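the four lines:
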Amino acid sequence: MRQNPERRRALLNAAIDVLAEDGARGLTFRAVDARAGVPGGTASNYFANRSELLLQAGAHVHVRLAPTEEFMARFLDSVPSREQTRLGMRDLLRRVEADRNGYLALLELRLEANRHPGIREELTRTIRWTLEENVRRHLEGGFPGDRNTVVTLYLAMTGLLVEHLTLPDVLTDDDPESLVDRMVAVIVPEGRSAR
Amino acid sequence: MRQNPERRRALLNAAIDVLAEDGARGLTFRAVDARAGVPGGTASNYFANRSELLLQAGAHVHVRLAPTEEFMARFLDSVPSREQTRLGMRDLLRRVEADRNGYLALLELRLEANRHPGIREELTRTIRWTLEENVRRHLEGGFPGDRNTVVTLYLAMTGLLVEHLTLPDVLTDDDPESLVDRMVAVIVPEGRSAR
DNA sequence: CGAATACCACTACAAGTAAAGTACTACGAT
DNA sequence: ATCGTAGTACTTTACTTGTAGTGGTATTCG
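prediction for all of em together
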């Protein structure tokens, strides 16, 4: 088993792109080699088997999709309001559009989770933590709405991203940005926090 | 090319189950044969190639997931209210839980849509029509809320179903039914129609 | 009523494809 | 000089597909 961490990262990024572009069906060692631009057989030397590759790709996807520290700092410093929440959702949309493959790979991994308990645990833990962090920051920061508001927002945003990435022409009357705006307007109350 | 419609339907149902259980990676003619309990080579005789199989499975999934006529009639006869909307969402959840594989296959097909324009068109057309029908019925029926309400509800419900089917333990504090209830409470205004 | 025909189920085969794993050589860094 | 890695090449295995061929059944026509 080879150890070069830089190359390992490159292979994981390639695996994420392969997942997004060719689906779980296309995720083979050789396909990852090709996508990473390394000679055939390399991925074999870095991952014991397909499951191991999937698992590590699942962990790496969150690194790629995480918000920048800079944005988080700015968000936490702001005056809590519905408008700030709107900007937060817009930033999420922007990040996903900037790394379309990352989020598509996450969707592929969600479906793989039905078959691989290891991946299910990994994704559940990470996504659950992210959601709970969002709830905590929202409530402690004094943003308008309660837990249900945040959870509903999370679900609607998930639906929007799925729709936008897989069947963009279903919601073609609206560009996704204004769709986000109107979604926030429906879900988040206007005033300060309810509780 | 064989024509027996009963057998064709059985093969399509088997294809949907294979998609859900083994993913796009596992969808081969032989796997469909095995799942349908027919001798090997049968699916080859009913579908020209894999794309054709996917396309017809995509069309058939909507047949499996469609609400019963009986429910629709009862819904249309009811007095419009947030409570009725809640029951409608609960029924959707019930249907999806009753045909878990159908909805999972739909998610697999959504991801395949990124690669097959034919499937993308098929799914876009059907899902778009369904959404627009929901909007129309909601508004014409005098249910509370406007277009944004219905679209937001659709997106949140999509997110909820994705979450519930792929990573059920992310939202484990709440059983999905009460989650639906609270989601509707957040999104749909209490009173009669706003416009 | 019987025979012919058309369709289908099922078995079996043949060939092609691709994926995985590993052995081997060369190279570079320590 | 040695250890770990890059890169190449080969072998083996497994899987998938497509189709030919056979036998059975239902339907239609004389």
